[in-house]
Design a protein that fits this description.
Helix content is 45%, strand content 21%. With 337 residues, it is an alpha+beta fold. The protein has a 5-stranded mixed sheet with strand order 8-7-10-11-9, with helices on one face.
Length: 337
C-alpha cells in the first residue's frame, strides 16, 4: 500500500512539474501571453529537423516575437478584413490543400482505368424515369413504382425495347426503343460509366438513381473502339412545320452539293461559298460512338442514309476517321427525318 501511495505521489508531482514547465509564459505582446509550449511547437515545426542549440532557440525566439507583434499590429489596423488579403489567404489555403488532396496512386489508377475502358465501345440501351432532387414524396413514390415495374417486366423476360418504349421518358425512345448506340469511356458521368462498364454483354442493371432520375442500362454488345471521328458538315435546315415541297427543295439543294463534291469539288471551299438561308455552317468536333453513327459506321461508305436522330435538318458530311485504317475518307449525305 505504501508503494502504491508513493507511486501516486510521484505521478502527481511529475504532472505538476510538467504543467509548470510547459505552462511558462515566455513573453507577452499586448495582453496576449505566449507559452513555452506554443513556442516549442512552432520551433519544432519549422527547424527542418536540425539539432536544437541555445543559439537556434534565441534566434527563433527573436523571429517569433517579431512575427507575433506584426500580426497583432495588422489585426489592430483591421488589415485582415481587406479583400486583397482575404484573396491572398484563400490562395494560400488552396495551395497548401493541393499537396494533401493529390493522390498519385489514385490518379494513376483512374488513368489506367480510363485507358482500358477506352479500348472498347459498349452498345447501350437505356430506360429513364426522371426525378428531380426536390421531388415531393408523391413524385418519388410514383417514380419508384414505375422503375420497379419496368425492372419486374424485364425479369419476366419481356424485351428491353418494349419495356423502354412503354415507360422510358428518354426523348428519343419512340424512334430507338431505348437503343442509344455505342458509348466509350469519358463520354458520360463517371458514376454511370462505372455502372455500365460492370455489365456483361446481354446483362441489364438494377434500377439506379442519379441526381436526374432512375436508370436501367443494358449492355447490348461490345466491340473494339473505332477511334475518334472528325466530321465537317454543311447544314441545310428546315423548320418542323415545313411542307413536303419545302423539304424536297432542301433535299434537291443537298443532292446538288453532294454531286459537286463527289465529282471533285473541294468540301471546305464549297462550305465557305455556299450561303443557305435559314441554315448554318459548322464543324463537328471529335465524337466517340456518336448518334450520327447509326446505323453503325454505315455512313462511312459514302452512300446517303436515313436516320431519325434529328427531325429538322438535311446535311452533307465529310468524314475523316483516323481510328479505322481500312476505311478511306468518304463523303456522305445524311438526311435527318
Amino acid at each position: 500500500m505504501t508503494t502504491l501511495r508513493q507511486t501516486l505521489v510521484l505521478a502527481f508531482v511529475a504532472t505538476l512539474v510538467a504543467s509548470n514547465v510547459f505552462g511558462q509564459t515566455l513573453f507577452t505582446y499586448g495582453t496576449n501571453p505566449v507559452s513555452k509550449e506554443e513556442f516549442l511547437k512552432a520551433y519544432n515545426k519549422n527547424n527542418a529537423g536540425q539539432p536544437a542549440t541555445p543559439e537556434s532557440y534565441r534566434e527563433y525566439l527573436d523571429l517569433y516575437t517579431k512575427f507575433k507583434i506584426k500580426v497583432k499590429a495588422a489585426r489592430d489596423l483591421r488589415l485582415d478584413t481587406l479583400s486583397s488579403q482575404k484573396a491572398e489567404l484563400q490562395g494560400f489555403k488552396l495551395q497548401v490543400a493541393e499537396s494533401y488532396m493529390n493522390d498519385d496512386a489514385t490518379t494513376n489508377r483512374l488513368v489506367m482505368e480510363a485507358f482500358q475502358r477506352g479500348l472498347k465501345e459498349i452498345h447501350l440501351a437505356h430506360i429513364y424515369i426522371p426525378l428531380s432532387a426536390e421531388a415531393s414524396p408523391e413524385e418519388l413514390s410514383a417514380a419508384n413504382t414505375k422503375i420497379s415495374s419496368a425492372y419486374d417486366r424485364l425479369a419476366k423476360g419481356e424485351s428491353f425495347g418494349d419495356v423502354a418504349l412503354a415507360v422510358s421518358a428518354d426523348p428519343g425512345v419512340q424512334q430507338n426503343k431505348g437503343d442509344v448506340g455505342f458509348i466509350t469511356a469519358l463520354s458520360i458521368s463517371y458514376e454511370l460509366e462505372n455502372l455500365i462498364y460492370n455489365l456483361a454483354p446481354g446483362q441489364y442493371s438494377k434500377p439506379y438513381r442519379s441526381r436526374n432520375g432512375y436508370h436501367i442500362f443494358k449492355n447490348l454488345g461490345e466491340r473494339k473502339a473505332s477511334g475518334r471521328i472528325r466530321a465537317a458538315q454543311i447544314l441545310i435546315a428546315f423548320t418542323p412545320d415545313a411542307t413536303e415541297a419545302q423539304k424536297q427543295q432542301k433535299k434537291k439543294l443537298a443532292d446538288s452539293l453532294y454531286q459537286v463534291i463527289t465529282t471533285g469539288g473541294d468540301f471546305r471551299l464549297l462550305a465557305a461559298l455556299v450561303k443557305v438561308p435559314g441554315g448554318s455552317l459548322q464543324q463537328f468536333l471529335s465524337c466517340n460512338g456518336c448518334t450520327l453513327e447509326a446505323p453503325p459506321l454505315a455512313w462511312l461508305e459514302g452512300k446517303p442514309i436515313a436516320t431519325s436522330v434529328v427531325k429538322v435538318v438535311v446535311c452533307l458530311v465529310k468524314i475523316d476517321n483516323a481510328g479505322l485504317s481500312d476505311i478511306t475518307r468518304n463523303l456522305a449525305m445524311v438526311q435527318m427525318i
